[in-house]
Amino acid sequence: MTPSAREIFSSSACSRGVFPASSSSLARAKRKIRYSHLTKKKVSNRRASATTTKMNIICASASAKNNNNNNNNNNRISCGDAIVNESLTPPPASGAEFDVIVIGNGPLGAAIGLHLSEKKEKKILILDSGEESLSSGSDDLGRIVRPLDAEGREEWTQLNIDSIRSFREIQEESEIEFFEKKGSLSIGSRAFVSRPASLLEAKGIEHEILRGRDEMCEKFEYLSPKTIPEEYIAVSDRVGGYVSPHKMRAAFNRLAVKNNEWTKVCVQTGEEIVASTTTDKNDDDGFVKVRTTDGNKYVAKEKVIVACGYYTQPLLHRSKIDMESLEDVKISKRTIILAKVSEEDAKGRFRDMPTIKYELPESVRSTRTTTDTSTSGTSDQSKNEAKSVYILPPIWYPGPVPSPGYYVKIGGGPNDFMTLSKAVMFDGEKNDIDKNKEKKSPIEQRKELDSVWEDHRKATYEDQKEDIESWMNSDGDPEIVPQLKTALLHVFPDVQFQSFETKACATTCTSNGSMKIEHYSEGKIWAVTGCNGKAAGPAWAIAKEVVANASL
Ligand SMILES: Cc1cc2nc3c(=O)[nH]c(=O)nc-3n(C[C@H](O)[C@H](O)[C@H](O)COP(=O)(O)OP(=O)(O)OC[C@H]3O[C@@H](n4cnc5c(N)ncnc54)[C@H](O)[C@@H]3O)c2cc1C
């Protein structure tokens, strides 16, 4: 990251080599790796109790079946729109060369692809695992985008403003509408709303401040004076709204392909990134390769950018990247409720409803605290999430998942960080590699080390994938669901909801609440992660920073 860059990301700008190839790797031979019986048992139990799938996929790509590691993520929300996969092409032949390969075609990967496509001379490949392989953190029909950042952070406020400003042109050029300008509302104590409000003021964003319950309930008819604390303040803008992440991705993809005939988007799951380094004599072309689960190998002459959401760390780990710099990035298990409302309510009382961030009064707050308060749990995002909820206005879900209808979405509550399975690593005297060290040549030692690491990486990657997918295939946290329902009925006590559906989701959080962009292997591999639950809406602006900082 360049020192002159705006304070968008926290970055250690590290440039470490891949594990066995780096000069420090042989020193690591002393470190031994094995799996505890407990870990193995846990894995087999989990496999035995593989989650049953419940729902059907509507927006699956035609080529998604290419993936070998099919997890049947059948509780995906149906987006019912063929347009979302329109830009996909069949996978290029194995061995094909590109300038840049982007792994992950979520909001961030697609936006990175779009910015890269403006460089007409570059050949770009965007890979995505497809809906039937790995799950995605943006599997829904609404993601909030708003300058009224919940934590009142300058960086996030600006990213949202810049992205919203870009939408009009992108929608016009792509002919895909993905943004609903509904406005944003933040309701809570003075302490809760004052920072976001002062940033709107500082940025010259038109907004309104309503002091006290009566004033806000008069203006927003869906709020009830029965429940809102009297002293609460509301801040509202008419700039924000929500995006359909699927349609936004489709628009980015369509424009990327239109801008640059060399851009390819296809369904392939990246299994390993192999970076040759200048010290690696076996593979001295200096290019990075991406091996996919289908057995294809693609060559990136300049860079590979990893934008795999919560799969970013597992993939880097699988690829032997020493990613100490991402150690504080944790996956937070999130739960949402989709509450069905009548068409009459959707088009009536909720007609002009903006997205809402609401500070819960103590009486309706979760009794649970954020897990792991030592690191990511201490960020302002984590603290704010623990005491608030966000609510999206009714969105039409075409079904079958959930059943067709208008749904209000509510989410929030304390972060619950996932503990990904890890192999047990320890130093000891009885390691076979160490024991025979004197008798073996450096090449033999290296081969032995590689094979031990290979087992370690495979097992932990598969293990981590199971941890993630079993959460994503669940109905969310049974303890959080009633709390979200209570919060929803607190905010809307007069609304007759027709049904409540729950869904698990996940996002990556950092200890300081900023995103992370890191680079490895002499700057040939870049990773973007640490979305803190708010990087879908502003993905366009985040991606712009990524491409600028990667000097592409
Ligand atoms: C419940 C919930 C609510 C949220 N609400 C909001 C909101 O209102 N506003 C907002 O801005 N943000 C919100 N977020 C956060 C937002 O969804 C994330 O910031 C966003 O999804 C991050 O985008 P991404 O492209 O990095 O990752 P993802 O959306 O997860 O996309 C990554 C893509 O990479 C693919 N992939 C993974 N591994 C591989 C591989 N090895 N090879 C190929 N492809 C791979 C995945 O399948 C996926 O398609 C929310 C998150 C959650 C969980």
Fill in the keyword field for this structure.
28% helix, alpha+beta, binds flavin-adenine dinucleotide, D-Amino Acid Oxidase, Chain A, domain 2, 9-stranded mixed sheet, disordered N terminus, 13 helices, 552 residues
**CATH topology type of the domain at 180-244 and 330-418 and 478-508:** D-Amino Acid Oxidase, Chain A, domain 2
Roughly how many Å is the radius of gyration? 24 Å
Number of extended strands: 23
Measured by DSSP, the beta-strand proportion falls in 15-25%
Total of helices: 13
Percent in helix = 25-40%
Distance between the termini: 12 Å
How does the overall form come out from the CA principal axes?
A: globular
Query: What CATH first level of the domain at 180-244 and 330-418 and 478-508 would be assigned?
Result: Alpha Beta
**Arithmetic mean of pLDDT:** 83
- Structural class based on helices, strands and sheet pairing: alpha+beta
Unique bound compounds: flavin-adenine dinucleotide
